[in-house]
Specification:
By secondary structure, this protein is mainly β. It has strands spanning 8-14, 18-25, 34-35, 39-44, 48-54, 57-63, 69-71, 76-81, 87-94. It has a single domain, classed as Sandwich (Jelly Rolls). The chain is 0% helix and 57% strand.
Length: 95
């Protein structure tokens, strides 16, 4: 098992409709394994490359600042910064 630094979440908004969290990843940092309890939208603030570890295998995902993408409730993964610079995105969970 690899030891990686943890990504840093900062909750910006939490109400009856959404949870908005900024995630900051140092090089090599990870979220830790988690299951999404809500549908969500990710808004990258920086370019970068993420390693997505899943039970079905690993894959890489390219981030482009300002190019959003959506994910579904029930997704289980660990997200790792695969670049040599800080990666930042904002996650909006839809309640």
């Amino acid at each position: 098992m690899q030891h990686r630094p943890k990504a840093v979440p900062t909750q910006q908004v939490a109400n009856e409709r959404v949870i908005v969290t900024e995630w900051r990843f140092a090089p090599g940092a990870e979220t830790g394994w988690h299951v999404h309890r809500h549908d969500y939208v990710v808004v990258p603030q920086t370019d970068g490359q993420l390693l997505l570890e899943t039970a079905q295998g690993n894959r890489e995902s390219q981030l482009h600042a300002g190019r959003s993408y959506a994910g579904l409730k029930g997704v289980e993964h660990n997200v790792v910064n695969a670049t040599d610079h800080e990666v930042v995105f904002v996650e909006v969970e839809i309640l």
